């Protein structure tokens, strides 16, 4: 990301609205406290695997035309609402975090959790999405929030009392260095969240942080580049598989970097954030500001009659990369990146990597996006104008929520 706010491809500021059936009401009654159920949407993209799929059969293509707006809650936002325990939870562009009754649209709680004023990047509040999950020790549903103040917060989902908070990356008071774009992913008693720059002005040392779900204690941190280097921001939100392995996508490195390290890559990490495997976008396919802004998704594919576990993510070059274990016919070899510490004797040849393997071909590719990516240079003016328009749009909507504490 270069010299502009990271909003391209994200939702613009808007008013929150909920639809329901004109006849009948799937939001007719709030669920019992502390009971995240199959009809809830408790996390970004639905959950740790990022499937964006729900087993709830209430809304179908057949009855979708009968939906109508039930209530309207006017706040500016770019993050996504989550629904659990009969409430909607969402952070606003102005830095307030809201709990809203899902049935009636009434405010239940409002907490200010930070706002980053314009310094070297555009002003910004919430960009990340909250996660509601059950505490593995006390059995209560908790709301986990990666906030603009640089902290990971844990609130009781019923009372909204804070149980703990832990630092992810605290923003500077002089420049806009860090901003919490990444949403917390909760799985196996752990919380994983990305570390990223605000708008690359300046770049920061990006990576992934791991926290204990019950206590908030920071357990481990993985960095995409070694100490003394910058880049590799994890703008996206990590995915976690059934074994606890973590999948992350990373951003660009510094313009003057002599090694790419783990930038512009899809990474597979152990539950303790040790690197297990990596795929990097081929140099010829890297475009200007060509980082991974999209979050990884876990899915299965049928290849040669066999069901294969896959991970995939879309890069800004317009190509969706699907990766699976072992060689795939017609696939491109996965290259292990240079080690962060540059140990002598490390082998950097093309090879299959356990658990990630080779890139599946051809994968999904949007011809329109790929065509634009091929034409666009690192500082293409139209691209910058689009970002400027999006920033102006956000500033206009910010006026709808003027009460930002000074």
Structure described in brief:
The chain is mostly beta strands.
Main features:
single chain; 406 residues; mainly beta; Methanol Dehydrogenase, Chain A; 4-stranded antiparallel beta sheet; 2 helices; 29% strand
Give me the secondary-structure topology.
Blueprint: E1 16-21, E2 67-73, E3 82-84, E4 87-91, E5 96-101, E6 107-112, E7 131-134, E8 141-146, E9 151-156, E10 162-167, E11 185-187, E12 190-195, E13 207-212, E14 218-223, E15 239-240, E16 246-249, E17 265-269, E18 275-280, E19 297-303, E20 306-314, E21 320-324, E22 358-360, H1 367-375, H2 381-398
Antiparallel strand pairs: 1-2, 3-4, 4-5, 5-6, 7-8, 8-9, 9-10, 11-12, 12-13, 13-14, 15-16, 16-17, 17-18, 19-20, 20-21, 21-22
Report on the structure:
The structure is a single chain. This protein has 406 residues and is mainly beta. The protein has one domain (16-384): Methanol Dehydrogenase, Chain A (8 Propeller). Helices cover 7% and strands 29% of the residues. It is built from 2 helices and 22 strands. A 4-stranded antiparallel beta sheet has the order 3-4-5-6, with no helix packed on it. A 4-stranded antiparallel beta sheet has the order 7-8-9-10, with no helix packed on it. A 4-stranded antiparallel beta sheet has the order 11-12-13-14, with no helix packed on it. Residues 2-12, 19-34, 328-400 and 402-406 have low confidence and may be disordered.
């Amino acid at each position: 990301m270069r010299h502009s706010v990271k909003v391209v491809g994200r939702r613009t500021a808007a008013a929150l609205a909920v639809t329901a059936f004109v006849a009948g009401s799937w939001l007719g009654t709030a669920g019992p406290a502390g009971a995240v159920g199959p009809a809830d949407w408790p996390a970004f993209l639905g959950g740790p695997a990022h499937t964006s799929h729900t087993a709830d059969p209430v809304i179908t293509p057949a009855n979708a035309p009968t939906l109508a707006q039930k209530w309207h809650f006017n706040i500016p936002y770019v993050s996504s609402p989550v629904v659990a325990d009969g409430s909607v939870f969402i952070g606003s562009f102005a830095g307030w975090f809201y709990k809203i009754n899902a049935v009636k649209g009434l405010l239940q709680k409002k907490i200010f959790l930070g706002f980053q004023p314009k310094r070297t990047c555009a002003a910004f509040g919430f960009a990340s999405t909250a996660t509601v999950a059950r505490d593995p020790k006390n059995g209560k549903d908790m709301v986990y929030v990666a906030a603009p103040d640089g902290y990971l917060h844990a609130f009781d989902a019923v009372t909204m009392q804070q149980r703990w908070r832990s630092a992810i990356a605290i923003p500077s008071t002089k420049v806009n260095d860090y901003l919490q774009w990444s949403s917390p992913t909760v799985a196996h008693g752990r919380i994983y969240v990305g570390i990223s720059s605000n708008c690359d002005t300046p770049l920061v040392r990006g990576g992934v942080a791991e926290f204990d779900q019950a206590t908030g204690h920071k357990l481990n941190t993985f960095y995409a580049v070694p100490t003394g280097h910058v880049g590799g921001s994890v703008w996206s939100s990590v995915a976690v598989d059934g074994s606890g392995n973590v999948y992350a996508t990373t951003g660009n490195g510094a313009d003057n970097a002599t090694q790419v390290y783990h930038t512009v890559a899809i990474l597979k990490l152990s539950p303790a954030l040790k690197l297990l495997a990596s795929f990097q976008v081929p140099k010829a396919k890297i475009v200007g500001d060509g980082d991974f802004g999209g979050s990884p998704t876990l899915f299965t594919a049928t290849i040669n009659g066999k069901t294969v576990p896959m991970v995939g993510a879309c890069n800004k070059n317009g190509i969706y990369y699907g990766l699976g274990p072992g060689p795939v016919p017609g696939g491109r070899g996965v290259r292990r990146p240079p080690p962060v510490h540059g140990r002598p004797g490390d082998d950097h040849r093309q090879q299959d990597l356990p658990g990630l393997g080779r890139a599946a071909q051809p994968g999904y590719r949007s011809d329109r996006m790929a065509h634009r990516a091929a034409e666009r240079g690192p500082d293409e003016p139209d691209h910058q104008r689009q970002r400027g328009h999006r920033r102006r749009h956000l500033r206009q909507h910010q006026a709808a929520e003027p009460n930002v504490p000074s």
